[in-house]
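New to this. Explain these tokens.
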Amino acid sequence: MANGLAKDKASSLKMLPSYVRSTPTGHESGDFLALDIGGTNFRVLRCNLSGGQIKTDAEVYPMSSAVMKGTGSELFGFVADCIKSFLKKYDVKGDNLPLGFTFSFPCAQHSLNRATLITWTKGFTASGVEGEEVVQLLQKALAERCPEFKVNVTAIVNDTVGTLMAAAYESPKSVIGLIIGTGTNACYMENLDAIEKWTEDRDEPKQVIINIEWGAFGDAGHLDNIRTDLDKEIDQHSLNAGKQTFEKMISGMYLGEIVRLAAMALVKDGALFGGNAGDKFTVRESFETRFVSDALGQNGAASIRETLKDKFGIDASENDVDVIVKLCDAASTRAARLAAAGIAAILLKINETKDRIVAVDGSVYKKHPTFAKIMSDTLAEIIPDNTISWVLADDGSGVGAAMVAAVAGK
């Protein structure tokens, strides 16, 4: 982390300054728009802030594989069309509609509303976007697709930054934003004195939120001693081989596939499904992460038995079901413990282990029945006397973007 904050030292952690220098006071007021793009679904929101309360209107829009892998102009054109549809549906009016933009991909930030995409992750490969300023692409699409609405993109933030900002509106004790969903990442508030590469003013407030981009941890080999053949196979068949090593061991995009590959290794050895998994189970990424969550729920065994039968055509024995459940537990436990170790490293770096809050968002953290407890228990192992609270910042990446827009408008 320190290397990433330095000027000329190599680090797999980009440690990107977000240019967000302040967290909300709770006194912000007005209507603010937010756009949250970070996975296969994206959201448009209108947030009304008043008296410390947040009222939200939101719509979710699915993004097809064709859009994700097409051209940048097609992608942002589609997004602009959806924003237009949202504004019409909710009868949003105004000559200057401030919008906070959560864009959950590695970006080099140049100012609060200027950021260049470094590389796509999470299955996105849209051409003509890497190396370009994302806000300009969005603003251009908005001008072309919905000129009747004067939408002004005032800030671009990572989803982790948005999550931290949303939580801080209700609790100033929030110090870390964490995403455990399709992808994974974390951010935290850092003192400017610790950021050698910071080139802007060092006036008050002498702090800025740092977007760690921790999914890339291990890209330089630091996790080689714990990576398995399964991890290496997932990497080889991914769209970004050699990148996002940490993310591929933790996030929802890969957790189900880790379980499937482990199961296939047992099938090959004749130790599972009688040595024959059929055709459907052998298809890459067919065992979804939601099945992993189902396996560890209250009716886990029954759920997995049904999934294996209905989706994969496998008549699983009691032992087969038990093995799959154990594989789901093992993959989940490893993922949660790795994420908790990362949080511990941040807390120790900023010397904040007492009476502080880690704000979390993301589908895996929200829907997985054991992930949160494993993380908390692991943090207690690493920092035994910590009094850290974990708060689910539900919809944090959306509301948080609006919050950044509100703070920016002061």
